[in-house]
Amino acid sequence: MKYLTSLLALMLLTAVIGCGEKKAGVVADPDEYEQYETPPGAMEQAQKEAQAAAQGS
């Protein structure tokens, strides 16, 4: 039981430390949006590649 309590405390501490500086409602700065955008046609291309790989297996 002591091991489980220590493990839970470590997990909680890690979660709290990992939060970092809080910016309410801000996920990314507007200047950084481009790096998160998916290029046109990338999803379709990935789907075609996945289907080809599945058929080739």
UniProtKB/TrEMBL annotation:
Residues 37-57 are annotated as: Disordered. Residues 42-57 have a biased composition (Low complexity). This is Uncharacterized protein. It comes from Novipirellula artificiosorum.
